[in-house]
């Protein structure tokens, strides 16, 4: 919507001369009239806009997305391929939301937006999600030629969009071009929905495959919890099917409730921005754990078993206890957060009940307590090391073999009488 207002003119020596309403030559009456008109114009402009709880939430998300992208982009800590694709996803989604929100609030017509600002982002968002998950699961992966072909649909739709836009700027009739362009947009929308479903299913299959691999402990691999990623991708896939349903109604029946699109818009925006924050946090944990794991592998001795139980307790140890000690201390099995009495007894070729009995009788403790003593001693090594002074307590706890921050705090405080953070501050001074 466009507005205009008349400038103030005065006659000087027979000539019509333009005078700025706020200049010294303008009278007070002219200034007040100008300011009054200007106030009415902005008031009319504001009142003509369609603000509601949905698009206000989306606008806030757009600005939050831009700020988040800039802050993380200029942080050297987050320069991995996965985080760059994650930032690209948030930035593209924010730009796309901003593009669609302009006609929604009444800044411009939908036709004007398509003719001037529209880009076919719907066909590249699933590709960016695909590569984010791929590089998160396998940071060492390199882009192959076949991977780059996934960008081809977006490039084709982008060329078509720029072609029509060029035609508009050259002055071709809008009533002729726009119906054809709308068909291209509808085709892009339909294709993007199906493309998203296919790529998201592939992503979910890959996450499941890696989760199966993580069941077998490997000291050389950071076995990160992937439930959050699998759940997030599953929810996005669910709402992609909902998007497919709304797209069908919009294109083939031209009958769809505006609230339905608002709902989809808000939910997916929330998921994308949530994925950004959690994804960056998870990457930070993996980065810190990788450096700690290198320290485990190369630079430090094993946990001394005598720190786990007293010398008097070692006198009555039988061969099963010695094998258990070798499995935990020398092979570092206690670093496996999924380790259980059943899995240990299977490796020692003993029944779980018998193994539990000899631990109770000879070590005067239970298997979980015995296992956690190794993990507590492991955590102490990291907490006392100044190289890890800026690392999060969570990453240290996970690398010591605990499966969560809360479990680490609970066990550590029970064993030492103080929290990991308090122990760290006292040890480092």
Keywords:
429 residues, mainly alpha, Rhopdopsin 7-helix transmembrane proteins, Arc Repressor Mutant, subunit A, 3 domains, two-stranded antiparallel ribbon, 18 helices, 69% helix, elongated, disordered N terminus
What value does the Rg take, in angstroms? 31 Å
Span of the ends, CA to CA: 64 Å
- Strand ordering within the main sheet: 1-2
Note the total helix count. 18
Overall form:
elongated
Helix content percent band: 55-70%
Secondary structure class reads: mainly alpha
Overall pLDDT score:
81
Query: What is the H/E order?
Result: EEHHHHHHHHHHHHHHHHHH
Briefly, what CATH class of the largest domain?
A: Mainly Alpha
The biggest sheet, with number of strands, parallel, antiparallel or mixed sense and barrel status, is: 2 strands, antiparallel
- β-strand percent reads under 5%
Number of discrete domains:
3
Question: How many strand units?
Answer: 2
CATH fold group of the largest domain:
Rhopdopsin 7-helix transmembrane proteins
Note poorly predicted spans: 1-20, 310-315
Judging by the overall fold, what is the CATH architecture of the largest domain? Up-down Bundle
